[in-house]
Amino acid sequence: MIEIATGVFVKRHEELDLNLGLVVGDRECLVIDTGLNDAFAADVRKITPLPWRVVLTHNHWDHVLGTPAFLPCEIWAHENCTVDEEILLGDAKNYPELIPVDPVLVPPTHTFKNHKKFDLGGRTVELHHFGPSHTSHDVVVHVPDVDVVFAGDVVEIGAPVQFGPDATPENWPNVIEQIKRLAPAMVVPGHGTPTAEWT
Fold first, then answer.
1. What is this structure's pTM?
2. Is residue 197 part of a domain?
3. What is the mean pLDDT of the chain?
4. Which of 5, 90, 115, 136 has the maximum number of C-beta atoms within 10 A of its C-beta?
């Protein structure tokens, strides 16, 4: 776990160059994506014992298969996020060594349409859906007090953007523009090195 700003952590995985996030407040913490398996939950507990809630940036397997390890808790996602096994598991069959033998697909317990705010105690975290791009339901997580944005797979660094069956390439530039308007000092991509120079 790398602390990229006060109380804001990124778990970087060699596998798929994947990033997961953790934002710690005074009363609770927010977990951003849950990863490939149950390991991330243990990593979070090494940082904080605070109650957690989870937000999923989108429903692709590498970002969500670790969700069962966090239950019971609130699982937040955009309202278009579904547990569609074909979309969710996607190309997971190409990485059998990375996924559980019998993966459990956990649906969101809570959804939002465009924007949602959480008070974690001493800091606010904002969830935004700026329209479809990588998927129909991408969520961007903004931590305003430290100007950090977790962009999910809307932003990938060191790899080409991925166009899956529910991607909307024509709206992708608009989503990027909306992220720019947040004026982040640091952007955490779904895959690749967190950076201040991402455009």
1. 0.94
2. no
3. 93
4. 136
